[in-house]
What does this fold into?
Amino acid sequence: MSLFEVVIVIALVGFVYSVAIPQFSLKSGAEAATKVGRLAEDVRSAFDLAVLTGKPYRLVFEMNSGRYWLETTTRRDFLLGDQKAQSDPTKEEEADLDAASESAFLEYEVLAGDPIMDPETQTEFKPVSPVLQAKSKLLRPQWKPVVNLEWRERTIGPYLMFKEFQAEHHASKQSVMDLPENGRAFLYFLPGGYVEKAWMVVAYKKDERQPDDSVTPYTFKTSPFSGTLDTIGTGEESAVTFD
It folds into this structure.
């Protein structure tokens, strides 16, 4: 190509970038704001659902992907407890914990003794043990995803991730950089009208595991008795602590 043609091509490329990049930024910013607004609505919706149904719920946040969904359990006696978790289990770790709990109860069944046979009716009676009778309350709660017309898996992606998160049941801050690739964080809702005290930082993505610290993140906290997710400022300095 002649020098004149090269100059024309460079000018056209520059024009395309000058138009496309601002439009891309505008689109990503508007979409991010929409996703963040939906997140706040979902927190309030989960709070209302726990009150209306009388069942515990939890929101599960997959930190790096920005995916989140709602789960519930049939255990109405679920309590947060005093023991603080260093981190919430991954899906695979939770399955291992459930299997270990079931395995532990096999020992109690053996200790309870063999079944007793009624010689007249040939009916078999299993041994009764207070521990076995309380099995459903002593085992870990079984959490199942809520899937209906209102609830499906959500995402704050593709531009955003959950950078940091801490709820009452956590011993320390959960950071996307410290957790495994499929690391999760839970937010619990109790039937009496209470959502855990929690704060979270929603940041723009630099890549799949790295937040973009050059862009101001969104920072929120929950309001425990009203079930809202409120903006508390920008950046990590706005994080709150729990007693």
About this structure: The chain has one domain: 3-88+141-238.
